[in-house]
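Cross-posting from the modeling subforum.

Setting up a comparison between two proteins and wanted a second pair of eyes on the formatting. Protein 1 (sequence, then structure tokens):
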Amino acid sequence: MSGATVSGGQHLSPGCILCYQGAKMVLFVTGRCHRTCWYCPLSRERKGQDAIFANEQKITSPSEAIEVAESMSALGTGITGGEPLLVLDRVVEYAKRLKEHFGPEHQIHLYTGIAPDEPALRRLQGLVDEIRLHPPHESWPRILETDFARSAILARQMGFVIGIEVPALPGIGALAVALPLLDFLNINELEWGETCAAAMRERGLELADGLHNAVKGAADWVKELPDDPKVHFCSSSFKDSVQLRERLKRIAANTARPFDEVTDDGTVVYGVLEPAGDLDAILEILDEDEYAICDGRVEMAWWVLADLRAELPGKKYVIERYPNGGMVVEVTPLDAAIKD
């Protein structure tokens, strides 16, 4: 169904356009939630925990969120959870600070499994630009009779961009009747997660392949929906190969050290020496701008480490990781890295 793809981006919501460019910070405001959706893919680290993350970094204040947004030159923020509206005061505080710092053009969208009423919408007005409603699966057959439909109508009247965003599940075609009330209907490919794996198996579901978290058959369920420009299907592979990569590249452009090699995937690669012997004598071999000392290790360009390996005593290896001190992707002994 051509209307449910993100390939061209010509019909995407403003928030999705920025996600497509990797230009949105993900602000996870709480892991608390009033629902127990069997398909929820949240990790054990976050599920049920009242913790805040900006991208992958745990934070405790709006100023830290601003720092993370600046590190990637973010053009907007996606607020998610858990259930963000359980901590409405927190949502308002963070959104207000982001808008004040970056300006009103900093586009903010909010995911919620609660249909916000008029008082809640009034508090979000001028701070949140786009609302993505997540009605529970069991409500889809009667979606027009729910508070979500009423909330969508009201939010649109109040100037919000409004849509529904849900995972691909059987029976998703029932949501088509809500399209006239919405600016968009986003369908995410159903994903396997550590906390929902047992529920997936109970329902006879399995992974589509060994490369992504997509559930087999989820993309076919979307065919129940009409080929409408408001309908967009976001695949698991797209999120992994495009959204994440573009976001990492933006972060790397701002935070990579002079000796870090930035890959096409937005990761950074550098060499590490765990020195044996006199550290001062080792450092005399290197130029001051060629290295950094981190926890007693000497980090430098991997090719410099390769060229000088005979002169630098100690354990040597190459690290590939997400930028700005992010997750380590791979650690390779230097000789093996050169051989590859």
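Protein 2 (same layout):
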Amino acid sequence: MAEILTPFLAAFILAYILRPVCTWLGRHRVPHPIAALISMVTGLTILFLILVLFGTLLKQEIPMIRAQAPHWIQDIQAWLEPKLVQFHIQLDWVGLKTSATEKVAQHLNDNADALVSSTFDTVLMSGSSIVTAFVNSVLILFVMFYLLLDWHHFFQLLKKMIPVRAQATVQQLAMQADTLLSQYLRGMFIVIAIMATYYGCGLSLVGLNGAIPLGVFTALMIVIPYIGIALGFSLAVLTTLLQFGIDIHMIGVLAVYGGGQMIEGFFLTPRLVGERIGLHPVAVLFALLFFGQLFGFFGVLLALPISAVTLVLVKFAWQRYQQSAWYQQ
């Protein structure tokens, strides 16, 4: 059921994130359908800019890797070959260098005919995947628009489906979850904005090419605990190696990311996001793996918010259990 539920879950989360924009437009007397449409366009524009950012990083990194690959193999040969000779092991270094250069160049071939042919073959081989992605995208946009348009009516309908004796309890739990998620999202947006400025300025001072896109990318990856910052740091180290090699600039990058982790981990996140979710680090890692396996990359992004809602339910269930006669006997 994961493949069926994922588009609806994605639409609901996106509608929830964009709902404040729609509500703000409604307060300024913008007709509700137009407010929902403007909110969707705003969200899609931000998503498009993020994709452009990723494309900029790839466009910068891949040619540098292509240019540096032969030199890397030379350095590895100079360091490793004397050690291999002691064990009577010989490698075809010329063949390795040629093969590595060709493999990288294969993805960066400037020949238009080869590019069109490769794209056409890829489209033919993955036609069903493209159709599925297109259908899911249309479904997400469709559901998201109607959720933004009829958000309150949707929840009123859900409320009618709940037994009357349980409506007050369910409403209370929903309000607690909504408050927790709202605080979490607002805090994360502020943290991302501050850290994007910090990493962008810090990496620019170090002298890295593409410092601003790399800084913004690192800040955006904060939404994925542990894994995100590791990915941003790895890209920064790779960029430094490609541009400068191992020198004083590497120390600068280490200082920028070390300072960033201290600012974000010990000051910004505790104050702006705080112990809102209250999950143990082991529970966070479990949530990342579990929801990632269930819903893919989108599940990784949603692991923490979904865990927050789950925690509200678990706390309520535990409280009821402790108040039960069976527990107190």
